Queue: 2 jobs
Job 1
Amino acid sequence: MATRKLLFVIRALPYKTEASRLALTHAISSQSVEIYLKDGDLVEASVAFIGDGVMNCLKNQQAMKHYGITSIEGHMKNTLLLDMKVMVCKEDLDRFGIREEALLMDAGDIGGETNTQIVPYSEIQKEMQSVDHLLFC
Amino acid sequence: MGKLTIGCFSSLVGSLSLDFAVKLSDAAVKKGHSVDLWLSGNATTLAKKGQKAFKDYSHLAKPLQELLATGKFRITACEACSAARGFHKEDIMEDVKSHSMDWYLASTFEADRVLHIGGD
């Protein structure tokens, strides 16, 4: 029995490329990875948004209205619903002048109990050091 | 010998990230390591059969076939990402597998190193 920890570090802007969406969908897929593993083995994914990537965390995204596709906000909500750790870099939010009120901080409306964590970059670095594999997107 | 898992989101033509991933896979296999290459997003274009070689564009079908023949290299394309781009299992090169994203995460479980190329 073992657990491998992965951290998806999202630096890509939302909607400009597919990278941030794919990072979230890959992280969410950790929920069904057991079908490929031995009994008791797990892959645990967490997500950190840094640099331009913090823009993915804005709430009230209108992707369906403008692009006809699901929003990245919706994927973020699913990660919170699944109790995955979601961190957003405080310094990068400050650089863009983005306040907490503008961010998706929870998925309470769909039954989620985990909140987005706004943390200094040093905390994200600690998380990077604690995981088995880093995946930059 | 170790196991390397490489994941890539970048397209076959339009970026050289896949060229790098294939060259790195080749170097690792030649050193005796095994490699899993996961293709997601635009990178799934690498899995499509019928690629024609032009001197102006990357052509990775031949090195892929050589790598697959070693038995130490596996390549898998995201099933949904491929289907969204209009190609399905019958359009994919022989010996290239097609799975959902959790296959990639499972591959990282036993990997000694994971290299994820998630940009462009």
Job 2
Amino acid sequence: MDFGAILTLAVKELISPITVTYVLCAIGLSVHFGYTGLLNFGQAAFAAIGGYGMAIGILTFGWPIWISAIFALFCSTIFALILGIPTLRLRADYLAIVTIAASEIFRYFMTTIGFAKVTGGSNGLSQFGGEFWKLNPLPADVEYGFGPFTYRNDQIFIMLVGWVLVAICAVLVWLLMRSPWGRVLRGIREDEDAVRSLGKNVFVYKLQALIFGGIFASIGGMIFVLNLSNVQPQSWGTTFTFMIWTVLLLGGAATVLGPVVGTLVFFFILSLTQGILGGLKDIGVLPFLSDPQIGQIRFILIGLALMLLVIFRPQGIFGNKRELQFNA
Amino acid sequence: MPNQIAVGAAEPGCQKVDPILVADKVKRQFGGLVAVDVDHVEIPRGMITALIGPNGAGKTTFFNLLTGFDKPNTGSWSFEGKNLAGVSSYKVARLGMIRTFQLTKALSLLTVIENMRLGAQKQPGESMLTALIRPLWTKREAAITVEADELLKRFKLDAKREDYAASLSGGQRKLLEMARALMGKPKLVMLDEPMAGVNPALTQSLLDHIIELKKNGTTVLFVEHDMHMVRHISDWVIVMAEGKVVAEGPPAEVMKNPAVIDAYLGAHHDTDLGTMQKKGN
């Protein structure tokens, strides 16, 4: 068992475009849940709309990539309005039910054969990334990085784009949450009737937060599909949403860096456990496990780790300990 | 002075010399139960008015209706001549009619000073786009903070400025909620049981704050159970029972009104329990 290789793989996982996707979705969810207290269980749909919106813009309408990206964000906004307008006047739990249902509806809608001409049905869409890769200014015949961390020019390009977007989104959230606007959101999280009694239009703030956080997830979805060069309905199941919740709670819900660090830790551990368990099996320590079982066991371990985290550090890695004293 | 408040005799629904709030035929039913059925009531401007009545009289429901937190089955009411029926709660607050809650709603995981700042109106930084550009709202924020600090000092919460509201005692939260409501510079402040659960040592200072409000020209309407306090600070008392206004008048007179004594205090309110038992036997 080669510890060096296992560790290398885990470190590579930290900066991969998949990680970028999760970070962006988790930042969005931190706006929803961490700051505003909205229970959004449909973050997968927001990401999927980002991916599909861009792919459909390019393939069906033949738009350039940046117009397709704006189209995708527009669709994401419409989706937030459809979810928010009927439910945000009601109690928080309704949004949870509606979002989880809506994200499943969206996924099945994309799978339906009837719309396959536009959505690609269950096969999804592919070959829409050409224009994106042409934007890459990095020469192709060079290897980037050092030692085991060498990448092709397009790998470096998408990671660069992804992490720049993460930085922009994180700064945006940081700026907004320390402004009076963010204060109103945090007030709504604590008690929306109190905020209403102080003359704030709570409904509009909640709608803005839902749209804003959803847009981050949609940007994440775009990075995801560009990286894979295809968009498929099965990527956006409820598991995706729950993984986002996991990384958010791991990092700390109402923090700017929490979603970023939570995702990094999550993927690092996921890759590390996979490597170690696989390695142990290879040298005959775990003969009773099959390869697919190893893939599943690490999720059991992660589930266990999450339980321990929620019990012993419910505020997450970055959460404020002071806030915790009153939750009991 | 009290007899300058009403035009004519002090009776339920009587006309006031200078009303700030006028409600007509406000009715709210929960299924078969009529929670509020107020035919006509006027709240005098610049005065401290107490709304009293036994449990379940509909006082809090009436508060909720007036401030847009609940919708009546029928009825209309106006604040400074503006019709408020069907107006949402946040707009009511912006018009200058700000309420507090019976179960205190301090925003627990915001600090005391943030709670206060949230109460202020007209902060441009509260809109999403201007929030991104700091110079557009820092000036207003500084002004708000000065106001907030003054109020905190007055309410003796300045030592708690940076603490989470959750760490305050029940009485301090009541104080914070009241101070926060004042940040919005209300013309009419509506306090729902401001004394409930407040330690007696704090009661006096809360009373002083309410009297202070009146001195500054703010109209106060409050719901209260403590008759001693009602007698002590209010200029006018409105008594509700079973959803209706059953009596009105200056405190001293209202307390003597047989309808009030029956409805609110019970027919045997000043009889010793011992003698009641003897009579019963």
